[in-house]
Amino acid sequence: DSGVTQTPKHLITATGQRVTLRCSPRSGDLSVYWYQQSLDQGLQFLIQYYNGEERAKGNILERFSAQQFPDLHSELNLSSLELGDSALYFCASSVDPAGGRGGELFFGEGSRLTVL
Amino acid sequence: ILNVEQSPQSLHVQEGDSTNFTCSFPSSNFYALHWYRWETAKSPEALFVMTLNGDEKKKGRISATLNTKEGYSYLYIKGSQPEDSATYLCAFIPYIGANNLFFGTGTRLTVIP
User: Fold this and answer.
1) pLDDT at residue B68, rounded to an integer
2) What is the DSSP letter of A83?
3) Cβ distance B36 to B102 under 8 Å?
4) Residue A34 at interface with chain B, using a CB cutoff of 8 Å
5) How many angstroms separate the CA atoms of A24 and A26, rounded?
6) What is the average pLDDT score of chain B?
7) I need a labelling partner for B94 at 20 to 30 A (CA). Which of A102, B25, B107, B112 fits?
8) B96 contacts in A (CB within 8 Å)?
């Protein structure tokens, strides 16, 4: 158990809909990362927050948004869903804001989104 | 987007065999390299965080080396066991403040009993 909690574990929805994925980081970790893993793709970085502030943005679509709340949990909002958004969405947390020398990432179990 | 390559993409070995795979990254800048192990239906777990050229890390039968000058890291598994079957991911951080780990697509290892 990594200590990172993601909900829901599975989600099936229709095109055009909107969903929210939730992540609670490991106790004491201030950094939260969101990654997308599509079929046959590696982990694609979406966005990172540190202590409530956005720190880095990757290939996150304009239809997607995220935030980190004062209690440090984070939500990833996906709207106007398309078939291609079907993927496994991982949240990870770390102590180190740069996720670098000291800050290995601790991953949640992922939220599997299926868009029909 | 930085290109982090892992090879081979997949690998089948017999139980007891030793094996190794490669992570290649741009050598122009380097801050840290991570290795993660990802078992099916579970979440990735960190194996090693490597920061210095020439670093060698070891955890049980698994070890890793790092060459930042030429831009590669090797992961070695000695005496593979079926429980070693997993996807092994490397992640590269080019500079402090990058605020992101650039992941390779992984090497999928299957150990045949």
Assistant:
1) 95
2) G
3) no
4) no
5) 7
6) 93
7) B107
8) 98, 100
